[in-house]
Amino acid sequence: MRKLSLWVVLLMAIVAFASCSQAPEAKKQITEHVIYIGLDGWGSYSVDKADMPNVKALMAEGCWTLQKRAVLPSSSGVNWASMFMGACPELHGYTTWNSATHEIPERVILKNNIFPTMFQLLRDAQPEAEIGCIYEWDGIKYVIDTLSTSYQEMVPPSKIYTDEMAKMSVKYIKEKKPVLGAFIFDNPDHVGHDAGHDTPEYYANLKELDEYIGQIIQATKDAGIYENCIFIVTSDHGGIDHGHGGKTLEEINTPFIIAGKGIKKDGEFQESMMQFDCAPTVLEIFGLEGPQVWVGRSMSQVFE
User: Fold this and answer.
1) Which of 97, 134, 147, 195 is most deeply packed, by most CB within 10 A?
2) How big is the CA angle at 47 (ends 231 and 117), to the nearest 5 degrees?
3) What is the Cα–Cα distance from 177 to 130, expressed in whole angstroms?
4) What's the whole-number mean pLDDT along residues 122-133?
5) What is the pLDDT of residue 26?
6) Cα(205)–Cα(202) distance, integer angstroms
7) Is 269 within 8 Å of 10 (Cβ atoms)?
């Protein structure tokens, strides 16, 4: 009887050890497509006053914050890098508005001679996935890891600040049905520099950009992927007067709006969000986690 009891204890110990040693269960992918829209120079201060029905429909249908904070300096290159790389400038090394490479050595390079981006991590997980980025400012190409994209294209300079960006984006969505498509408009940044932030011209440009966002949403319907899409609309920084790069809330508070399949319809969320939280949030949609060097956290509370 004593021997039998010992065998029972030993068997229970083996079962417990086997249970503990099993690999953690992979996270479930939430949906198949992410459409990521960036508006350079779009400050949160403008949202309430802006005539942006398509953006506000996404806000009503999903989750959002107007208090996502930019990293410093509150300008383009360093913030797009932080957004795509899930880390702060002290780690990824891109520190200025026009960083074309790291000014500080990257803390980690996994491949492609660049700090790991959300595009790179998705490519590793889904080697055949269609991953694309269309943009107006050439600085974007330095922070996305172009070797991890299927397609990347800058709007021809002669056509910049027109509807050409929207046309190219719509065409790409209809033809390729991207798993991850990033579409980065260079306005309202230039209007903010020329006419000034929080001006009639600035709000007129936001209205125009909202029409382009509506066209992109419609393209996903035409492509038959709308029901399996998550839409993200966000920005790198805001601005004051004719510039940006400072420490005011008008410059560092940026919108983050997320809606679509698997997203709660909870409206505004109160959790703190930083620029580098964007990439981990995108990866969670695909059931993935970022590398240890990332400091960003997924906004998991937005998912059903």
Assistant:
1) 134
2) 40
3) 7
4) 98
5) 57
6) 5
7) no
Query: Rounded to whole angstroms, how far apart are CA atoms 3 and 10?
Result: 11
State residue 27's pLDDT score. 79
Query: Comparing C-alpha atoms, which of 184, 266, 259 is closest to residue 227?
Result: 259
Burial class (CB in 10 A: 0-12, 13-18, 19+), 4: exposed
Using alpha carbons only, give the angle 155, 190, 273 rounded to the nearest 5 degrees.
90
d(C-alpha 222, C-alpha 219), whole Å: 5
Q: How far apart are CA 301 and CA 52, in angstroms?
A: 25
Q: Quote the DSSP letter at residue 97.
A: T
Distances (CA, A) of 211 to 93, 134, 151: 35, 17, 24
Q: Are 206 and 52 in contact (CB under 8 A)?
A: yes
CB 121 within 8 A of CB 288: yes
Strands in 229-234's sheet, in edge-to-edge order, are 151-154, 131-135, 180-185, 33-39, 229-234, 253-260, 63-69, 267-268
CA dihedral 270, 275, 279, 284 (to 10 degrees): -10
- Would you say 214 and 14 are in contact if contact means Cβ atoms under 8 Å apart? no
Mean pLDDT of 38-49: 98
> What is the value of pTM for the model shown?
0.91
Q: What is the percentage of the chain residues whose pLDDT exceeds 90?
A: 89
The alpha helices in the chain, defined as continuous H runs, are 2-21, 53-61, 76-85, 89-92, 118-125, 164-176, 189-194, 200-222, 249-252, 278-285
Alpha carbon distance 76, 184 (integer Å): 11
Ordered alpha helix ranges (H), 126-199: 164-176, 189-194
Q: Which of 111, 110, 112, 114 is nearest to 102 (CA)?
A: 114
Q: What is the tens place of the pLDDT at every residue in 234-269?
A: 999 999 999 999 999 999 999 999 999 999 999 999
Q: How far is Cα 36 from Cα 101, in angstroms, rounded to an integer?
A: 23
